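Study this chain:
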Amino acid sequence: MLRIPQSCVHTRSTPFWNKETAPAGIFQRHLDKGTRQGVYPRLSVHKGAVKYLGYADETIEQPEAELLIEAGHFGVFPPEKWHRIELMTEDTVFQIDFFVEADVLRSL
């Protein structure tokens, strides 16, 4: 599993989301500011399960990485990676924390 470098600083957390409250774009393939260089999103599942799908680019159909994150666990996503998530149960609840490399923070 990918680890967050010790030099990273926690910068923000999303609210607790479910299928109705999460932004729709999170379920579509995307590359957003949360996954830019030096930014490590950590998705924590509080109920249910989430599948992370990582893609080599915006056009390749098949994911090159999959990670199933179940309740009580978390997954860390790599920076600068096209990805999307799928909720595996109707009652899934999750949250995302963002950790940023200290030198990236200084350049913002």
